């Protein structure tokens, strides 16, 4: 085996931003490795517009791999990827997009001295783990990763993605070849397939209410290109491809039990502080998406003192509404969270806050930028633009890592009353249920009777509610708020997949108990969605997003403890409120009355673009490329209504219009090269 090249690339011609990317192509059976090298180089050439600190290529008789690195940790400067070497008589080669967080444990496991530890990059630890444990190596790795190992002796290609799906990995395969890449687009047209769109993915994308993009982890908008799901690895041997789920939180996480409540708090603090600390291992400065809520606030409250010991700052980025936005906010929400953020800054002076309303930006103006970054149509148009803008701002300040608390509601700050009440009710713990209602009454300062009346709808079985609302249910249209063509939805049996993911349901609330909600928290679809977006935005902004609330150790602890650690004695989100005492300002820690709302002014911002948006929607429908996928008459009816009224757009129609325009622009960009070839 040989390395075909190692080079450094940068310059004014480079596109602003990529953090790291890997790719490769391997022959299956007796297919030609020479062909792999040619096709693999073509895949890599499609990433030429991005700027790397270092790039490398490796080629052997059976395949080809590449990697582009941006230095985000001290050890990453020592990475030379891909590379190959023998371990225990086994010739192995690796390429990786990875940050390994349990380094000290692995260094000890492999007998690497403290003197050699700083010289040992993360990819070396991954390769040694594979040499020692084979495909089980993923059970011993903690961190954010996607990697590929070629095992010449076993004639095996091994692809893996971390349990939380923090880094994306895509692949395509035929009987003769398999190709993989961090991104989707470079794989188009490989393995003998013509570039084609996946109509079923488009149908699902248009049909799902809210921001999810797909109903299944594996599928992408491109036919023949698949996503390796979180917590999965793929083994390619001979002509056989096997995809295996190696970690299942509902199956593999063991219950966590202590004798006293305080022991849970102490254990959580140890794990959480370690999760934050290992994410401060940065080659540059550290930034954070900072809101006035508990998740990012708790992360900042742990990170800031650790950075302060090293004389370093934590750069906080907070979105605020436009100054012209004057909408009266309800008492239960907060549109501008800057006062809460400033409470954090006063507690931790080494937090340097950056507040911006990003004037001139809107969900319409950022479409092309986000389409280029995300590679496919998207529905995160409310906050996607400012996320990318803040990441680029932080990168420009020298930050190489950006912290967030994206999944905190399902881990560190989990715990809401309805689920607790439903759980007690189903367990027949009537006295406990009554005690909780009385405790809530005391906490909120409202009569017990009022609490009971609010609790009653939570306890009523869904079937009884459905029977009571049976006439309304017969009229319910699950596609009323989305632009999908009904005939397309029927063609691809979209309703079946919506049922499985419990999407577009009738407006009859069905509250889960703790066991049912655990299944939702363990769903890989949400992790895949978040991980793919974060990976691609990281690549576009040249900064790595890292989430301590999605650390596997934190996740396993939070999934393993009893529910009463989250809700008890009238207090919700109880674990984090207790753990952050003396760390997180009480204005945030003890706030139970209001919740921050990001991008509250998104419809107001669209006002300046309303005419242009309506014209583009009309033009897209007239030109027709999007018509096979959307319900034309509903969109045209909405157009007529919006053209005849002043003021902000209707929320539902704005979402349908933006989704349609984003899809139309994507299809136009996809079809343009093929039209030019045909001409």
From TrEMBL:
Q: Which PROSITE patterns match?
A: GATASE_TYPE_2 (PS51278)
Task: State the source organism's domain of life.
Answer: Bacteria
Record EC number: 6.3.5.4
Q: What class of enzyme is it?
A: ligase
Keyword flag Cell inner membrane: no
Q: Kindly state which reaction or reactions the protein catalyses.
A: L-aspartate + L-glutamine + ATP + H2O = L-asparagine + L-glutamate + AMP + diphosphate + H(+)
Signal peptide position in this chain? none
MF terms per GO, please?
asparagine synthase (glutamine-hydrolyzing) activity
Pathway annotation:
Amino-acid biosynthesis; L-asparagine biosynthesis; L-asparagine from L-aspartate (L-Gln route): step 1/1
Any Pfam family hit? GATase_7
Keyword annotations of the record: Amino-acid biosynthesis, Asparagine biosynthesis
Domain Glutamine amidotransferase type-2 spans what residues? 16-239
GO terms for biological process, alphabetical: asparagine biosynthetic process
The text of the family note is: Belongs to the asparagine synthetase family.
Q: Which PANTHER family match?
A: ASPARAGINE SYNTHETASE, ASPARAGINE SYNTHETASE (GLUTAMINE-HYDROLYZING)
What is this protein's name?
Answer: asparagine synthase (glutamine-hydrolyzing)
């Amino acid at each position: 085996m040989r390395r075909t090249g190692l080079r450094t690339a940068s310059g004014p011609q480079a596109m602003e931003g990529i953090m790291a990317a890997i790719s490769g192509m391997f022959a299956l059976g007796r297919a030609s490795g020479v062909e792999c090298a040619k096709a693999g180089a073509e895949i890599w050439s499609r990433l030429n517009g991005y700027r790397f600190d270092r790039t490398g290529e490796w080629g052997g008789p059976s395949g080809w791999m590449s990697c582009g690195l941006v230095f985000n940790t001290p050890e990453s400067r020592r990475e030379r990827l891909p590379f190959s070497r023998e371990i225990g008589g086994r010739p192995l080669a690796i390429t990786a997009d990875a940050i390994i967080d349990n380094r000290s444990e692995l260094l000890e496991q492999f007998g690497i001295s403290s003197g050699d530890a700083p010289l040992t990059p993360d990819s070396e630890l991954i390769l040694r783990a594979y040499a020692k444990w084979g495909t089980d190596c993923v059970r011993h790795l903690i961190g954010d990763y996607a990697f590929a190992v070629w095992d010449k002796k076993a004639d095996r290609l091994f692809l893996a993605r971390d349990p939380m799906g923090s880094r994306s990995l895509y692949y395509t395969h035929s009987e003769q070849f398999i190709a993989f890449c961090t991104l989707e687009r470079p794989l188009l047209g490989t393995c003998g397939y013509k570039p084609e769109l996946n109509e079923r993915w488009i149908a699902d994308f248009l049909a799902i209410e809210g921001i999810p993009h797909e109903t299944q982890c594996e599928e992408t908008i491109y036919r023949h290109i698949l996503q390796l799901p979180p917590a999965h690895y793929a083994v390619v041997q001979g002509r056989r491809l096997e995809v295996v789920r190696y970690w299942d939180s509902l199956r593999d996480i063991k219950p966590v039990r202590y004798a006293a409540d305080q022991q849970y708090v102490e254990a959580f603090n140890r794990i959480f502080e370690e999760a934050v600390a290992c994410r401060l291992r940065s080659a540059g400065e550290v930034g954070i998406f900072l809101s006035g809520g508990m998740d990012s606030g708790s992360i900042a409250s742990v990170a800031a003192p650790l950075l302060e010991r090293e004389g370093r700052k934590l750069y906080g980025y907070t979105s605020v509404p436009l100054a012209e936005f004057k909408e009266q906010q309800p008492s239960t929400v907060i549109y501008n969270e800057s006062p809460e953020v400033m409470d954090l800054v006063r507690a931790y002076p080494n937090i340097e806050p950056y507040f911006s309303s990003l004037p001139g930006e809107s969900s319409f103006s950022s479409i092309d930028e986000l389409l280029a970054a995300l590679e496919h149509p998207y529905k995160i148009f409310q906050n996607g633009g400012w996320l990318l803008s803040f990441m680029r701002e932080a990168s420009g300040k020298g930050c190489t890592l950006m912290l967030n608390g994206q999944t905190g509601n399902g881990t560190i700050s989990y715990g809401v009353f309805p689920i607790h009440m439903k759980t007690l009710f189903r367990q027949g713990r009537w006295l406990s249920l009554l005690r909780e209602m009385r405790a809530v009454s005391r906490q909120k300062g409202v009569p017990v009777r009022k609490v009971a009346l609010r609790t009653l709808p939570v306890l009523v079985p869904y079937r009884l509610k459905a029977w009571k609302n049976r006439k309304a249910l017969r009229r319910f249209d699950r596609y009323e708020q989305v632009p999908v063509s009904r005939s397309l939805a029927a063609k691809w049996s979209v309703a079946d997949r919506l049922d499985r993911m419990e999407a577009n349901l009738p407006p009859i609330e069905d509250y889960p108990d703790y066991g049912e909600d655990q299944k939702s928290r363990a769903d890989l679809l949400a992790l895949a969605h978040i991980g793919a977006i974060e990976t691609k935005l990281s690549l576009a902004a040249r900064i790595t997003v890292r989430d301590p609330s999605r650390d596997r150790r934190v996740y396993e602890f939070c999934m393993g403890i009893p529910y009463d650690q989250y809700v008890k004695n009238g207090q919700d989100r109880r674990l984090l409120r207790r753990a952050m005492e003396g760390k997180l300002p009480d204005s945030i820690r003890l706030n139970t009355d209001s919740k921050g709302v990001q991008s509250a002014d998104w419809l107001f911002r669209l006002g300046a673009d309303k005419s242009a948006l309506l014209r583009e929607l009309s033009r897209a429908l007239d030109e027709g490329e999007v018509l096979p996928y959307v319900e034309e008459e509903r969109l045209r009816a909405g157009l007529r209504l919006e053209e005849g009224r002043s003021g902000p757009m209707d929320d539902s129609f704005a979402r349908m219009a933006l989704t349609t325009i984003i899809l139309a622009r994507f299809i136009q960009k996809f079809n343009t090269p093929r039209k030019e070839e045909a001409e």
